[in-house]
Design goal:
Radius of gyration: 18 Å
Strand content: 25-35%
Number of domains: 1
Number of strands: 7
Helix content: 25-40%
Structural class: alpha/beta
Strand order of the largest sheet: 3-2-1-4-5-7-6
CATH class: Alpha Beta
Low-confidence stretches: none
């Protein structure tokens, strides 16, 4: 079985094709000016990077996985893309006005990574942990939902608490939580592509992964599925 974080390289194209983006309005809620230099840490294929590039003067994207980074360079050519990880960010001290981690902070919510984030932030800079979450009720059929709940039960709540605690232990002020709603429309094929991009599925050995995908496909009728998604930012200002 492939290491969970590394599994995304195996499913990089699926991640790019099916994962939702983020609404520009989410950035309106953060105290980061348009002339800022910002870092997208653990940028993946650039789902948030392209939104940042529409807003800020200089966007740096750091991503450790080669396959994800290749797509990122292709789809967001206006960003400065670098190889690297959260525990050793390839930037100088106090070099950025904001650090964003989109759907990624749970992989590196450690004191060491938070210290690195604080190191590259200028005093008064912002760290934002950003993620998408599907609102209830969803359009998914009951049997499909039940199978997903069995696969992924009990994970999100514990991760959420760990991430906030990691920020609070760092050199940051009050932790804020803001969100906006947006929509994503997917057909059956896109829904199944999305599932292939999930780390739990991507890391499975080929026969197990394909058996699971066949099972999920049998539970998901053809058609279009419209999701209401809450994009959230948990953010704090560096002291």
């Amino acid at each position: 079985m492939i290491e969970p974080a590394r599994s995304f390289d195996r499913a990089a194209e699926e991640y790019e094709a099916a994962r939702p983006s983020y609404p520009d309005e989410l950035l309106d809620l953060l105290p980061v000016g348009r002339g800022a230099t910002v870092l997208d840490l653990g940028a993946g294929t650039g789902k948030l990077t392209r939104v940042l590039a529409r807003r800020y003067a200089h966007v740096i994207a750091v991503e450790p996985l080669d396959g994800m980074r290749a797509i990122l360079e292709r789809v967001v050519p206006e960003a400065e893309v670098r190889a690297g990880g959260a525990e050793a960010i390839p930037l100088a001290d106090a070099s950025v006005d904001a650090v964003f981690a989109a759907q990624a902070f749970h992989w590196f919510a450690t004191d060491e990574a938070v210290a690195e984030i604080a190191r590259v932030l200028r005093p008064g800079g912002v760290f934002a942990d950003v993620w998408n979450e599907t609102e209830e009720p969803t359009p998914l059929p009951g049997a499909y939902r039940a199978r997903l709940e069995k696969l992924f039960s009990t994970r999100a709540g514990a991760e959420d608490g760990t991430r906030e605690e990691a920020i609070r232990r760092g050199p940051f002020g009050r932790v804020h939580l803001d969100s906006v709603l947006h929509e994503q429309l997917q057909d059956r094929d896109a829904m199944l592509t999305f599932m292939r991009s999930v780390s739990y599925v991507a890391k499975l050995p080929d026969p197990e992964r394909e058996a699971l995908m066949d099972e999920l496909g049998a539970l998901l009728p053809p058609g279009e599925y419209r999701f209401t998604i809450r994009a959230s930012a948990r953010w704090a200002v560096r002291a």
